[in-house]
Amino acid sequence: MTNHWVDIKNADLIIVMGGNAAEAHPCGFKWVIEAKKTRKAKLIVVDPRFTRSASVADFYAPLRPGTDIAFLGGVINYLLSNDKIHHEYVKTYTNAAFLIDEGFSFDEGFFSGYSAEKRSYGKDTWKYQLDKDGYAKLDETLQSPHCVFQLMKKHYSRYTPELVSKVTGTPKDQFLTICGMMAETALPTKTMTICYALGWTQHSVGTQNIRTMAMIQLLLGNMGMAGGGINALRGHSNVQGITDMCLYSDNLPGYIAAPTDADADYKTYLEKRTPKALRPGQMNFPQNFPKWHTSLMKAWYGAAATEKNDYAYDWLPKKDGAYDVLAIFDRMHQGKMNGFICQGFNPLAAVSNKKKVGDALAKLKYLVIIDPLVTDTSEFWKDFGEFNQADPARIQTEVFRLPCNLFAEETGSYTNSGRVVQWHWQAAEGPGESKGDTEIVATLFQKLKQMYAKEGGKLPEPILNLTWPYRIPNKPSAEELLMEISGKALADVYDPKDKTKVIVKAGEQLAGFIQLRDDGSTACGNWIYSGCWSQAGNLSARRDNSDPSGLGQTLNWGYAWPANRRILYNRASCDPAGKPWDPQRSVIKWLGDKWGGNDIPDMRPDAKPEEGVMPFIMTQEGVARLFAPALADGPFPEHYEPFETPLDKNPFHPNNAKATSNPVARVFKGDMEVFGKAKDFPYVATTYRLTEHYHYWTKHVAINSVLQPEQFIEIGEELAKEKGIKAGERVKVSSNRGHIKAVAVVTKRIKALDVDGKKVHTVGIPLHWGFKGVAKPGYITNTLTPSVGDANVQTPEFKAFLVNIEKA
Amino acid sequence: MALQSLDIKQRSATTTATPSVRQTVEVAKLIDVTTCIGCKACQAACMEWNDIRDEIGTCSGVYDNPTDLTENSWTVMRFAEVEEAGKLEWLIRKDGCMHCADPGCLKACPSPGAIIQYSNGIVDFHEENCIGCGYCITGCPFNVPRISKKDGKAYKCTLCSDRVAVGQAPACVKACPTGALHFGAKEDMQDYAASRIIDLKSRGYDQAGLYDPPGVGGTHVMYVLHHADRPGLYSGLPKDPSISPLVSLWKGFAKPLATVAMAAVALGSLFHYVTKGPNEVSKQLEDELEKEDAP
User: Fold this and answer.
1) If 0-12 CB within 10 Å is exposed, 13-18 middle and 19+ buried, where does residue A548 land?
2) What percent of chain A has pLDDT over 70?
3) CB contact under 8 A, A37 and B35
């Protein structure tokens, strides 16, 4: 979230789209209700199904799964053609005025630079026109045909209400009602917030779904404002923390881009990731990259990381290909992996195409499961009849199960969706022989280290030199780890303005990332968390909920990264002169000599408004990007059909079959072959969670299982009638990858949609069942889903695919 | 089941005068249906606090589960899909005991002290005195009490009288994530409901209102409804609930007998004997009565 949970109460309009906050985030949803009660806020829900969120909404509209960009692109067109934008904000705080290379174009679904063979774009034309000093050129009149504003206007002029309705199935009048409601928040004193979740990410165009909404929020001037922002509701109590600490192979902790084979040496690596400012006088905060990276390496390798050895750069793995979850299982499926350590993860249930995952696991020599529960994955090799057909005699994978503790059995920190790091204390001892995850992994590491020390190996240095300063080597404590993550001075750290003045003494905890150095004098395990455990102690353990502003800005509750800032880009909540756009919801303001107010300013504290330092300090240009060349699939979001679509062409590009689905999404060999076609699988399916359950965990819990005991799927009354299916009967749902059987819930809440002159039915499939647990055994929902991911981050397309349905 | 620090207002089949020195504030639970998302946290909290577990059942083609109140499910969410003039509404109502000011169950109950009404308004079943005759079910205009298959006694929501007695809100209220459930003095709940109704009217729900039906003297569980003129839309919430005439008839017949508490018990036992035959429960009850008579 750019904002935070409590801040939702400050919104005038709340959009729930690409998520179902009431269902999946019932506790956080209280702030939506609060906004409705206390601010008279309106709630809009756009979803293929009339959901629990919709049940308390002021306005609901349906749309076909996988057509969010068509819908939101239509909103952009509405805002631009009806002139419902926050002009000063757009002109000053975004790259609307920036001039783009004259060679940039968009034609028949492809942006300039497309290579069909490589399924990727060359981005030579996706760039700013630069002046002689290397700064981007602007047209402040916004009239040049090459400026971002005009290019955007042209791009979305195709998204007419008629075409939007034809593609999404959303009735035109309902679409226009929503446009009108959103447009009202173009006023500086009105804000809209968006709550989304996996309903936007789990598409082959996932990243662009979110970006389209970000563009809308920029056009309306809602970024940085209280009650505004782009708010990803994270689906797991600590998934934000996991992401921050580098769950992904693409990153080192703190979203530091990991080195790849292309980064031949340390110098190349740093240069590529340390950008130059594209406008004069901007903060261009990523220019501090060497400080973050060096401090990370000092945290990992301590005295062994020196200037001479490039701070141990050679010991970091250099990525030679993709290592996202789809790529890992594809590699495993090809028999190219021996072992797999599976910690807090149930891939047989959680990853798309269950058959492929099961076949892949069967090719391993060993599988290590670290989990508090007997997961389905841990028994993938056992026969559970129709729910998991397997022949143990033919599977040689040796499975080790290491029981670990649950969250309440450990002390540590959680980071919630609003980036607030909160300490928690152990409430109970784990049962039996269970151990903390840290202890299990640390013990494993100690063993490996001993083996490397004794037997050597190809490259023992990264293992042998790792610092391990913990009091009990097999059991690092949560306190030791958070202190290391937050960072400390290894030598005295001096004030850059006065080199004689020591600001942090050697051995002291750092106050924040502003104190990080690239000369090896600081160590920090994750720069964005720097300061969460300062000399003042563990700030994540603070529990002072006093709220002087009344906006929910509880600055002494836990610690929000970065720098305890609660609303990102909050400089944009003020006009260029430093006055809040909305004095009633003032986040920060210029106090005459510095920035201050109800949040930690997202701005150099002494940057006078007349200096023109722009609010989006993480970009090289200081402004937000309506045109974003960093994305793999286009600088402007474009509608592409899901890989399994009920249509035979993309209505936006009827003459280009290659632009039917995302032209740069990666498809592995073998996966393309198992995409289904609409003639065999005529119905659109989407998967989701229920409030009563939590992923594949709570099927092990009696109370949750009482509340929702048995697997079901949902269909509309019209489809049920067509198929002769009655509520409560068992049905078989098949995709080209397999089938499941479940009870049918027949509902008025899913309607057939009129799409491109064709009637499209949606089948809703909750995902919580499996063959282990106390709930009634069920099929793994991901038996049905395809293994194709988003073009930028490879999140699988769980939310839109094709199925058939029949009576079981 | 309840702590006796609560003053008693009425007791089934008892004529002893009730204490009247202390004045108790009437309490109420307010269920704001219009902000309820049907998450069932209240059902889970009820199971946890009261230590009751229903069976892990099956899906019958709806979201409701368990599908009805049972001796182990004292509250359930009822989901109704209502479509009018092209507008769909998913009306989700938390069902359970309404804690009537004029409780039909208590009126109908022939067993002394099996049903208690506290002066704060909570209607509580004391199962140790229950003879399992099922008259409370006949007496209830909301079809709430359920007889246990395990011990033959009647069970229902206690409004967490044990929590309320020590100044805590009921478990369901404590667990509700959206603040759809409120608990406090009935007067305060009515005031709060009024503010919600103003908000709902401003959103076009012209018939929004408070459900506090006078036919049962008002209730200590109240609903804020978007369509207060049509409570039936909410999975059959009765429009004008009142106590069954059968119960009044029974009361008229029983009242002279009830002047002697023992007689009423004997009658209750007789009814029980007729409907269920002799069993351990009635024997146990007799033993207890003997014990009570002993000193």
Assistant:
1) exposed
2) 100
3) yes
How is residue A580 annotated by DSSP? B
Residue of A nearest to B196 (CA): A37
| Chain A interface includes B35 (CB < 8 A) | yes
Strands B154-155, B146-147: pairing is antiparallel
Q: What angle do CA B2, B5, B6 make, to 5 degrees?
A: 70
What pTM value is reported for the model?
0.94
Which of A260, A385, A352 minimizes the C-alpha distance to A736?
A352
Q: A42: distance to nearest CA of chain B, Å?
A: 9
Give the containing element (helix H, strand E) for A261: none
Cβ proximity of A156 and A652 under 8 Å: no
A232 close to A194: Cβ distance less than 8 angstroms: no
Whether the CB-CB separation of A762 and A199 falls below 8 Å is answered with no
CA distance A163 to chain B (A): 23
Residues in A closer than 8 angstroms to B205, CB to CB, are none
pLDDT tens sequence across A741-792: 999 999 999 999 999 999 999 999 999 999 999 999 999 999 999 999 999 9
Same structural domain, A310 and A332: no
CB contact under 8 Å between B59 and A56, yes or no, is no
With CA atoms as reference, the chain A residue closest to B202 would be A40
Secondary structure (H, E, C), B25-44: CCEEEEEEHHHCCCCCHHHH
φ, ψ of residue B137 in degrees (nearest 5): -65, -45
Interface membership of A55 toward B (CB under 8 Å): yes
Interchain contact, B180 vs A33, CB within 8 Å: yes
**Which residue is closest to B60 within chain A, CA to CA?**
A728
Render A110-138 in DSSP notation, one character per residue.
EETTEETTTTEE--TTSSB-B-TTSPBPB
Are A211 and A276 within one domain? Answer: no
Does A625 map to a domain?
no
Q: CATH number of the domain that B60 lies in?
A: 3.30.70.20
Q: Exposure string (b/e) for A605-625, b if CB count within 10 Å is 16 or more?
A: eebebeeebbbbbebbbbbbb
Judge: A729–B61 Cβ closer than 8 Å, yes or no: yes
Asked if the C-beta of A657 comes within 8 angstroms of chain B's C-beta atoms, the answer is no
Is the residue at A600 inside a domain?
no
Contacts of A776 in chain B (CB under 8 A): 56, 58
> How do residues A133-176 score in pLDDT, each as one tens digit?
999 999 999 999 999 999 999 999 999 999 999 999 999 999 99
Full domain range(s) for residue B62: 8-228
In a domain, B195, yes or no: yes
Rg (C-alpha) for chain A, rounded Å, is 26
Both A788 and A698 in a single domain?
yes
The whole domain housing A437 covers 325-412+431-455
A33 to chain B: which residues are within 8 Å by CB?
35, 178-180
CATH number for the domain including A447? 3.40.50.740
Domain count, chain A: 4
In a domain, B280, yes or no: no
Same domain? A264 vs A294: yes
